[in-house]
Design goal:
By secondary structure, the protein is an all-alpha fold. The chain has one domain. It is built from two helices and no strands. The chain is elongated, with a radius of gyration of 15 Å.
Protein backbone atom coordinates (compact mmCIF):
# COMPACT_ATOMS: atom_id res chain seq x y z
CA UNK A 1 0.00 0.00 0.00
CA UNK A 2 1.19 3.51 -0.78
CA UNK A 3 2.39 5.38 2.33
CA UNK A 4 0.36 8.49 1.43
CA UNK A 5 -2.82 6.43 0.99
CA UNK A 6 -2.17 4.75 4.32
CA UNK A 7 -1.83 8.06 6.11
CA UNK A 8 -4.94 9.46 4.41
CA UNK A 9 -6.90 6.38 5.56
CA UNK A 10 -5.68 7.03 9.10
CA UNK A 11 -6.94 10.62 8.99
CA UNK A 12 -10.29 9.54 7.51
CA UNK A 13 -10.76 6.84 10.16
CA UNK A 14 -10.00 9.42 12.84
CA UNK A 15 -12.49 11.92 11.44
CA UNK A 16 -15.16 9.28 10.87
CA UNK A 17 -14.57 7.86 14.36
CA UNK A 18 -14.51 11.11 16.30
CA UNK A 19 -18.07 12.16 15.36
CA UNK A 20 -19.79 8.99 16.67
CA UNK A 21 -17.48 9.13 19.69
CA UNK A 22 -18.72 12.62 20.53
CA UNK A 23 -22.34 11.59 20.02
CA UNK A 24 -21.87 8.45 22.10
CA UNK A 25 -20.26 10.44 24.88
CA UNK A 26 -22.99 13.08 24.88
CA UNK A 27 -25.82 10.54 24.85
CA UNK A 28 -24.00 7.98 27.05
CA UNK A 29 -24.11 5.21 24.43
CA UNK A 30 -21.33 2.84 25.43
CA UNK A 31 -21.36 0.61 22.34
CA UNK A 32 -21.00 3.64 20.05
CA UNK A 33 -18.03 4.91 22.04
CA UNK A 34 -16.34 1.49 21.88
CA UNK A 35 -16.93 1.11 18.13
CA UNK A 36 -15.57 4.60 17.51
CA UNK A 37 -12.42 3.90 19.53
CA UNK A 38 -11.89 0.63 17.65
CA UNK A 39 -12.24 2.44 14.30
CA UNK A 40 -9.71 5.08 15.34
CA UNK A 41 -7.29 2.44 16.66
CA UNK A 42 -7.53 0.32 13.49
CA UNK A 43 -6.80 3.38 11.34
CA UNK A 44 -3.75 4.24 13.43
CA UNK A 45 -2.45 0.66 13.48
CA UNK A 46 -2.74 0.24 9.71
CA UNK A 47 -0.87 3.51 9.23
CA UNK A 48 1.90 2.35 11.57
CA UNK A 49 2.22 -0.83 9.50
CA UNK A 50 1.96 0.61 5.97
CA UNK A 51 3.29 4.21 6.19
CA UNK A 52 6.89 3.16 5.61
CA UNK A 53 9.62 4.01 3.15
CA UNK A 54 9.62 1.44 0.33
CA UNK A 55 13.44 1.51 0.26
CA UNK A 56 14.66 1.44 3.87
CA UNK A 57 11.42 0.43 5.63
CA UNK A 58 11.57 3.15 8.27
CA UNK A 59 8.39 4.78 9.51
CA UNK A 60 7.08 7.92 7.80
CA UNK A 61 4.42 8.60 10.45
CA UNK A 62 6.03 11.74 11.87
CA UNK A 63 6.38 13.43 8.51
CA UNK A 64 3.90 15.53 6.53
CA UNK A 65 1.90 14.31 3.54
CA UNK A 66 3.32 14.93 0.12
CA UNK A 67 6.98 14.50 0.90
CA UNK A 68 9.08 13.53 -2.10
CA UNK A 69 12.09 11.93 -0.40
CA UNK A 70 12.56 9.67 2.61
CA UNK A 71 13.97 11.68 5.54
CA UNK A 72 16.00 8.64 6.63
CA UNK A 73 17.63 7.31 3.43
CA UNK A 74 17.03 10.17 0.97
CA UNK A 75 15.50 7.92 -1.71
CA UNK A 76 12.52 9.25 -3.71
CA UNK A 77 9.10 8.13 -2.52
CA UNK A 78 6.90 6.87 -5.36
Amino acid sequence: MNHNLSRILMYVSFLVGIIPFAIGTAKDITWLIICSLILIAVGYIQACIFARCPHCGKSLMKRLLGQEYCPWCGEPLD
